[in-house]
Write a structure and sequence with these properties.
Keywords: Repeat, Ubl conjugation pathway, WD repeat. By secondary structure, the chain is mainly β. It has 5 helices and 30 strands. β21 and β22 form a beta hairpin. The termini are far apart.
């Protein structure tokens, strides 16, 4: 069903590429796109929505022998019969949940599931070990644009759809009707669940605000509101849940805003140069927080893939391989690798240099996973420490790099 190509390892080139066996044909042909890629929570599997209604699930890591055909490695093909827009493995645990001693049941560990969101509004849930269909969830009236399992070891699945609703499914209770979250007036593009499984964040394509919902009471909490019109693309929580990254673009450039989800305070923004480029010339396509350290990956039109190190306040890595045209990206849960799916159905992998998070960051991570911003602010600590714990010491505005190639200020 696919072929591979191993490339030389240069700073700006992928070290491994998965190519679909069916050519994409004319650029932009509908149906061939890789809209979603995903690593399993323990990093042992990789799922690829390879276009034309098929998902390929591989054992990870992929073969390192250049002459070994990918079809000979352990893999399964899931035939979904409809175009696939979203993927999610479950059950899963966040790093903070593991440190708090939370564990998933033995049955859940042995039954790794993969949920696939389809263009007909249904969600098919597969048993990864056998490749057998377990459930087909119906209720959405349009494309299931995004999926996320709660990172607490349960089988709570959140789905976001172009029918302008979010649905919360409990896969442990077969036949139970989902909780339906309504309110958005535009297509929902992306949803993300906080690491402590308390909040859901979602963004709509033409709604210049972020919606925050309670995953415990299934009620609306608050908006994160912008002063100027934005086209919203993606959102993701940091590994400690203290930051929410939101990707959008306005009339001049793409922007990534960092918010405090507990207080609705705007913490910082990363953006392209305001003086260079015009709308639709360099759009942001996706973003993803790493589970290791404090790194944020951005997929944009012109510079392919960028990784921002928020702890060190620097552009950590930039991959500018020509023709990537990426639509999605995700980090391996244990670090060291990032994958991006492209419009022509390919998946490209890059090696990420490893680094050891500072002791300061590890302490902040442990504290912020358990405490909200309001709980931190009442602690009898010096202001500098409180600013660090609440990320208020982050540079408020940062221009990553302008379209003409000048360095960040």
């Amino acid at each position: 069903m696919c072929s591979t190509e191993r490339e030389e390892e240069h700073d700006d080139e992928s070290f491994w590429v998965l190519k679909p066996i069916h050519p994409s044909g004319v650029r932009g042909t509908a149906g061939c796109e890789t809209w979603s890629v995903a690593f399993s929570p323990d990093g042992s599997h990789f799922a690829w929505s390879m276009g034309y209604g098929m998902v390929k699930v591989f054992d990870w890591p992929l073969p390192t022998d250049e002459g070994e055909c990918i079809s000979r490695c352990s893999s399964k093909t899931l035939k979904c019969e409809h175009l696939i827009w979203s993927l999610a493995f479950g059950p899963r645990l966040s790093n903070g949940a593991r440190e708090m001693g939370q564990v998933s049941s033995r049955a859940d560990k042995e039954r790794l599931l993969l949920a696939t969101g389809l263009d007909n509004g249904s969600i098919k849930v597969w048993i990864v070990s056998t490749g057998k269909l377990l459930y087909e969830l119906r209720g959405h009236e349009s494309i299931v644009r995004d999926l996320a399992f709660a990172p607490n070891g349960s089988l709570t699945l959140v789905s976001a759809s172009r029918d302008k609703t979010l649905r919360v499914w409990d896969l442990n209770k077969k036949g139970k009707e989902p909780h339906v979250l309504v309110g958005p007036t535009h297509w929902i593009f992306k949803c993300s669940i906080s690491p402590n499984s308390s909040m859901i964040a979602s963004v709509c394509n033409s709604d210049s605000r972020v919606y925050l919902w309670s995953l415990r009471s299934f009620t609306f909490i608050r908006y994160l509101t912008y002063n100027q019109p934005r086209t919203m693309i993606s959102c993701d929580f940091s590994a400690d849940g203290a930051l929410l990254a939101v990707g959008s673009y306005d009339c001049s450039s793409w922007v990534v805003d960092l918010w405090d989800p507990y207080t609705a305070e705007h913490v910082a923004s990363l953006r392209d140069c305001d003086m260079c480029g015009y709308r639709f010339e360099n759009l942001i396509r996706a973003l993803s927080f790493s589970q290791e350290g404090l790194r944020l990956a951005l997929v944009t039109d012109q510079r392919a893939l960028q990784i921002w190190d928020l702890e060190r306040d620097q552009l950590f890595q930039q991959y500018t391989q020509r023709g990537i045209d990426a639509l999605c990206c995700t980090f391996h849960p244990k670090g060291g690798t990032i994958a991006a799916g492209t419009r022509d159905g390919h998946v490209k992998f890059w090696k990420i240099p490893r680094s050891v998070p500072s002791l300061r960051h590890l302490c902040r991570f442990a504290l912020r996973f358990s405490l909200s911003t309001q709980q931190v602010e009442v602690l009898p600590l010096p202001k500098k420490i409180l600013d660090f714990l609440t990320y208020r010491d982050v540079l408020r505005h940062k221009v990553l790099r302008c379209n003409k190639g000048c360095s960040s200020p």
